[in-house]
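User: I'm putting together notes for a lab meeting next week and I want to include a structural view of one of the chains we've been expressing. I don't have a solved structure, so I'd like a prediction I can at least talk through. The sequence is below, exactly as it appears in our construct file.
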Amino acid sequence: MITESGWPQDDGAASALAVASTAFVIWMAVDAIRRRAPLYWLAAIVLIRPLGGVAYFFFVKIRDYRTRTGALHGEPTSRWWHGAWRLGGAATLDPAELAAADALEVAGRYADAIPLYQAVLARTPRHLQALHGLGRCMLGVGNPGRAVQLLGEVLSEDTSFGNYSAALEYAEALWQAGQHQDCLRVLERMVGATGRINHRIALAHYAMLSELPSRAREVLEQALAAHASAPDTVRRRQQQWANRATHMLASLRVV
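Assistant: Thanks for the context. Below is the predicted structure for the 255-residue chain, given as structure tokens.
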């Protein structure tokens, strides 16, 4: 085929490029959904293809390839060169395979997603997104002990991975594995690091499950006090969480 520029076009190459571009867009879209990224990112990825996905990768996704430790484990920040080495090592990654694994995991098809994540990790053993996805799958199939190991590996390199979603899932895995005190310690550290209302609610939830109503009450009261003093835009964005905290606090008062 001859293009308008007069140069021959390789139909096979164009088809392969289209498939790769579509896989990349799916990969970025699923990542944005799992990360709970602002909706404008998802809109950009889907509507401005492929530039929206490229922008998302370099402004958001690339942070996954950094190695950062910190508030949850009390360790110093790792050097940037190690993160850069890991990013370069991701050259053997098959984006389509990872995108397919993520899509299956989001759909709750954990048993189908597991071998795909394992295949990715066989080539790139420290790939944080694949470790995270496999950890979520292990929770989904009722293997919290393995989930603790996998999610722990993620947090050992990036304590805020997935906008702290990995830390929340790690806490849940610890709880399901019977490591209740470790679960509470992780959440205490996370609340100390972020102060976010949803993280405070998670801590209160597990404190209630641990039959620590006074600690749960204290955390919820602190959450609502911080919410009340926040700027209007923040309060509007967090109102659903504040309503949940109010409901939880009311249930504690009844008890």
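A couple of points you could mention at the meeting. The two ends are 76 Å apart (CA to CA). Residues 1-9, 67-91 have pLDDT under 50 and may be disordered.

User: Perfect, that's what I needed.
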